[in-house]
Amino acid sequence: MRPGAGMSSLELGRRRLAPAAASGALAAICGIGLLATSGWLIARASERPPIFVLSVAIGSVQAFALGRGVARYLERLGVHDLSLSRLGALRVRLYDLLEPFVPGGLEGRGSGAVVSGFVSDTELVAEGLAKRLGAAIDVTASVVIGAALACLVQPVLGALLAAGAGAVVLGALGSARLARPGAEAEARLRAELAEAVVDALRSAPELVAYEREDLLRERLSEVRRRSMTAARRRSTGLGLGRAAGTLLSGAAMVAVVGAGLAVHDEGHLSGVMLAVVAFVALSVFDQVAGLASVLGDVDASRAAARRLDVLSAARRPAPEPAVDRSPATGPIAAALCEVDLTLGGNHVLQGVSLEAGSGRRVALTGASGSGKTTALHALLHFVSVASGRATLGEVDVSEMTREGIARHVGWMADETHVFATSLADNLRLARPAASDAELVEVLDRAGLSSWYASLPDGLATDLGSGARAVSAGERQRLGMARALLAEGSVLLLDEPTAHLDPVTAPEVLSELLEATGDRAVLIVSHEPDIGRLVDAVVTLGDPSGDTAGWGASGASEIMGPSGPSPLGSAAKSRQRGVEASPGSSEVRAVGRVDQSGVQPCPRS
Amino acid sequence: MRERQPRGGPFDRRLVRELPVVRLALGASVTLGLVSTAAVVVQALALAHLLAGAMPGAHSGDRAAEFAWLGAAVALRALAAFVAEAVARLGATAAKADLRRQLLDAALASAPTGTGTAPGALATVAGRGLDALDVYLGRTVPDLVLAAAAPLALVVAVGALDWLSAVILLVAIALFPIFGALVGRASTSLAAERWHQLEALGRQVADVFAGLPALRALGRSAAQRERIARAGEALRSASQKTLRVAFLSALVLDTLASVSVALVAVPLGLRLLDGSISLSAALAVLILVPEVLLPLRRASAEFHESTEGLAAADAAFSSIGAARPERSTRAATACSGRAATACSGRAGRGGEVPDPALVPVALRELQVMFPGRAEPVLDDATLVISPGETVALVGANGVGKSTVASLLLGFSSPTKGSVTAGGADLRDLDLRQWRRKLAYLPERPTLVRGTLADNLRLAAPSASDADLHAALAKVGARRLVARLPLGLSTRLGEGGRPTSAGERQRVALARVMLRPASLYVLDEPTVHLDREGEEAVLEALHGVLEGRSALVITHRPAVLAIADRVVVLRGGGFVPVLQQSHDPRRTSRRMPHTKPVGDARPPGGGVLPCAPVPA
């Protein structure tokens, strides 16, 4: 599908559209018919004909009255059915669209909030579709049927009625456009306000402590003031829309009646039929005049559709190959070789090399933002490297499919998502064929045996019901269990002890690393004693340590004009590694030149 | 797509009571609605006269005058529509802004205590949540109020033309809410169970999306795609069943509206046969009949949509209520923000504020309850910080460490027990003066919009540029200033956006070190720093804290080295830690300042101003 198409456009199945459109047309016929027949009845009755002349009209009036409600009901159901099936399709499409971007591909904001924002955007789009579609069917049906009826009576009047309705529709569209910049500005300001609120609340303790509460309200009131300006613009647009609708439909009504009187004066139109045309016009313009307020309502859905379009047009961070070239199952090494990587214009990794072979445990440390998680994502092919190679068993990950990578790599994310399903299903995601005994064993290895014993239904316990809340620490251990269960011979662990207290964290970490067996392990950790537990420590970031964390990327400091020589960096890392891990046999340093002796990059 | 019945009626009286602008806008909307209704009557009469005049044998009358009336009525309606819409929308926006201000003021007042709504949740309530009021106040409420007034006004007009039609319409108007309520109640109870199903299906979809990264890594994302598709289809068919019931009330009301047109039109026709009513009156009545029930039909549709607006109003009011500091018999429990002014009113009572560097600061037999939590966070907890002592406080996440900081700063008060400085209870002291003797580094320090110097001087307004440079050097940020285009005058964004978490932490550390305080309350001072950064900072901190009292909350074992004493917060109480057994390396790392200072220095030198302290 062409990027940008599909999310916001009205792609409707004809099969589903037909019932909604047909019942909409029926509702329009009944609505117009009710007033037109009533008008005829009254006008004709004033000529005092015999009563049987009126009997058909009397019956029709009652039939139209009853039919209209039913037809409307069916139309509503049809329109909602359409919008719901569209919602289902949108969600599947969103899933396909989002899949390549999580985690970490959404301009560095791969958080759950962004994803759930997109999910609710699909709801807004579907809701907007229901509103717009309902209005479109109602307006089209009543204009077409009304104009056709008027044409039958007198073609000039039919044409005039259609033209008038067209003017009203154009007026509604124009004023909706007038209101739109205000609505868009409001949406932008809403995001800004949310940020300002969060900032203000977070900074409140510090600023109160320093007696600077004034700073808290300053920015908030500025955002509020600008929101007011935007709202004024939107309100004016909406007001003009309603006024234009009323004015244009009123004027068109006057024109139709005036023209009808002129034709009547020429003797081409009876008084009774003039009344009929007038009531047809009343009914049609009544329907069309309401269009402006519907159009004003769908702004939110337009904005949501645009966000989804931006997503569908975005470049995928790591395209998957069609053919899987992953190595045969068995012990393999994971390696980054001279990797440069950019995210959203920031150099996150520069010249990073590291290797974890079978049975070896390598720790990845460094200040926040130095690219530790990104290094793991590069090995998982969640992101593409700009240059250099990320390999598993000497095959570049860009030549492996997701399934291929999953066969070789177990991953524990920094935040583990527990699915709203049973404990067993949560674990079996990592290995569908695992036996119950294996699941219990892996829970034990992740330090969850006492927690498991406390569960009411054992492995069948539903973890999503809310009855069994899973704490942050338990969730993390579940992530460990899942990673340990995965079949791959490479294990990537992203801060496995981040949610544990400093007393228990080292214990859990050493148990975890013991449980990894002969796998190749790459572990991101802030634990100060990590050096004792692993074979090597790789430190990302500025080797001088002084300005670690400054700038977009610590790693970029190596390349900066003020950075020290690579030799100095390696020496420093070695010294640090020895200090942190007396037991480690070797230390791998980061830099353009690897000084530690072992070379993960094949020499070319 | 949600069409739930609002409970307890479609109005939230608090909106009218608390927000004067809502009263004003509503009054204007209803007045304009009635003006518009009058114009509708004029328009109907003019049109009826024109049409009746065209009948054979009828006197065609003054057509120009009728057209003038018609035009004037249309113009008046358009004008009224413009003003009514703009006033209603602007009123909604103003009401929203007012509510937002109240909400944020209340939230800011309680923010330092840590007991208010979470910032993210509050941002949602204040942002997207309040936006639901746009439609609610901008359209739903005016329509509902107008639905009560306009139909009756129109019936009076119809009655002047033909009393029998007026009676029929009155019956229809009376039946409208009765039918609506009956059908609505039946469909609500039928639909309630289905809504739970729908919500469960919706959660399934959200769950798969939330776990997408894990599914991808496990190579299972394709299989779960099917689950999304299945859930979507299930959602659709379940929704259809629900909507079939939910739309029944609309069906009944729509039918009632169109049947009343027929019920008026047929007798009109029959009475025209015997000449008991004039044609122009009959036509005018027929034109007016749909207008009579239109406001009611619109209101019944809006009635469902009011749920969202009501929920938004309720969330806002309950957040305001929750955030408003409660008054206890002894003193205000939260003395911060605007409330701090009230607290400082008792300044004279406690006399001079004691200096925490000279007297012990004691947390005695503390009990702290959080709203919504059954278990106390702190229970019978006692901790005394002696003058000049540095106490390190450790403990698992969520155990209440930051609450202790909040108590020391006087942001919150214990449910039981006391916080005293040299025997004086914090609740009797002028908290502003007390805080002037304190330096506070929160868990998540902030950079305010302004220059780097502004940010540093927040804590020490009188510091010189040289002081600022010295403080930045202490935390290893010397090179930052060198690299910034304007040095200390470089502007930093709100939330410190151009800077990383590590940079932010260093600026905050420099800020806290600049403050000439007697008691330092530091929450995770070395978070976001790498090992060497941490060592440099600890060395500097050790110098700053010499002769001052301090409570240092930390997760990092290295920080324990600068403490005189380590205390674990566990099970609601403070448990002392025997230093030797806790960290065997402690003895060797006890004195970071005994290491050669140059070791932690960046290449090229730079003098750390903290002189080595004699061991």
Walk me through what this model shows:
The complex is a heterodimer of chains A (604) and B (615). Chain A is built from 18 helices and nine strands. Chain A has 604 residues and is of the alpha/beta class. In chain A, a hairpin with a 2-residue loop joins strand 4 and strand 5. In chain A, helix 1 packs antiparallel against helix 6. Chain A is elongated. Chain B has 615 residues and is an alpha/beta fold. In chain B, the strands form three sheets. Chain B has a six-stranded mixed beta sheet with strand order 6-9-10-3-11-12, sandwiched between helices. In chain B, strands 2-1-4-5 form a four-stranded antiparallel beta sheet, with no helix packed on it. A two-stranded antiparallel ribbon of chain B has the order 7-8. In chain B, strand 4 and strand 5 form a beta hairpin. In chain B, 53% of the residues are buried. The N terminus and C terminus of chain B are likely disordered. The interface between A and B is large, with 178 and 170 residues.
Properties at a glance:
heterodimer, A: five-stranded parallel sheet, four-stranded antiparallel sheet, 18 helices, elongated, disordered N terminus, B: 615 residues, alpha/beta, six-stranded mixed sheet, 20 helices, 12 strands, 9% strand
Summarize the structure in short.
Chain A has 604 residues and is α/β, with parallel strands linked by helices.
